[in-house]
Amino acid sequence: MSTPTDGPPVRPAGRSSTPHIDPKGVEIAETILLPGDPLRAKFIAETFLDDARCFNEVRNMLGFTGTYRGRPVSVMGTGMGIPSISLYTHELIHDFGVKNLVRIGSCGALQEGMELYDIVIAQGASTDSAYVRQFDLPGTFAPLSSYRLLEKAKRAADQRGLRAHVGNVLSSDIFYNADSEVNDRWRRMGVLAVEMESAGLFVNAAAAGVDALAIFTVSDQLITHAATTPEERQSAFTGMMEIALELV
Ligand code: HPA
């Protein structure tokens, strides 16, 4: 029996199904790519993976396992926001033994000189979310990505000549913020970009001792208000995918 001081409920790896993931016997690989949109997961599986099989359809949060250059890899949607990515990654880590979790998504750039389609690799994720409070730490925890994955991803970006900014991102619970100046305060602290999930992922990974990273394409420039269309985003994410697949 777990007590409140035992930490989050941890079930043994290798479970056959959880409340949100029912793989029906299809394996989930130790390395998983995590776009927010489940249809993006399907597109990635169909475009980049060999022999992809669907491992989850619960709530249409599609997940697939296949191979990339002969190595097993999974890809699954996470939904939007820290509550959604946190519950899926908790189950992937604790029930299915996933060890490397790579979020791939879009972000809003907060700094001058950052352009649409630039790549951002999160070294850490600041947040306005209360998610980490469950661990009852006597201070402010800094959710960081895995240095091992970060270094590999930056090298892959450099080798391809892709412009990749590495640093702090903001994982915000609020897309439509009533405080119209809040982004300026994060910008002044050097935060590169805003998105809505990575801090939950990094906290879960830290608590479980596994590796996580987040890689983004800039879809909005929040200083100049330049923005991409959904169609443009679809084609622009190829560079980010090439980096993520190097981690497999
Ligand atoms: N805010 C939050 N998440 C985002 C944004 C944004 O402006 N752009 C892309 N993802």
At CATH level 3, the topology is Rossmann fold
CATH class: Alpha Beta
Broad shape = globular
- Which percent range fits the helix content? 25-40%
Hetero compounds: hypoxanthine
Percent strand equals 25-35%
Order of helices and strands: EHEEEHEEHEHEHEHH
Largest sheet: number of strands, sense, barrel closure: 5 strands, mixed, barrel
CATH superfamily: Nucleoside phosphorylase domain
Number of helices: 7
Uncertain stretches:
1-11
Span between termini: 36 Å
- Computed over alpha carbons, the radius of gyration is 17 Å
Summarize the structure in words:
With 248 residues, the chain is an alpha/beta fold. 29% of the residues lie in helices and 26% in strands. The N and C termini lie far apart (36 Å).
Quick gist of this model?
The protein is 29% helix and 26% strand. The protein has 248 residues and is α/β, with parallel strands linked by helices.
List keywords for this structure.
248 residues, alpha/beta, Rossmann fold, 5-stranded mixed beta barrel, 7 helices, 29% helix, globular, binds hypoxanthine
SSE topology sketch:
Blueprint: E1 31-35, H1 38-48, E2 50-56, E3 63-68, E4 71-76, H2 82-94, E5 100-109, E6 119-127, H3 147-159, E7 164-171, H4 182-188, E8 193-195, H5 198-208, E9 211-221, H6 230-236, H7 238-246
Parallel strand pairs: 1-4, 1-5, 5-9, 6-7, 7-8
Antiparallel strand pairs: 2-3, 3-4, 5-8, 6-9
Helix pairs in contact: 2-5, 3-7
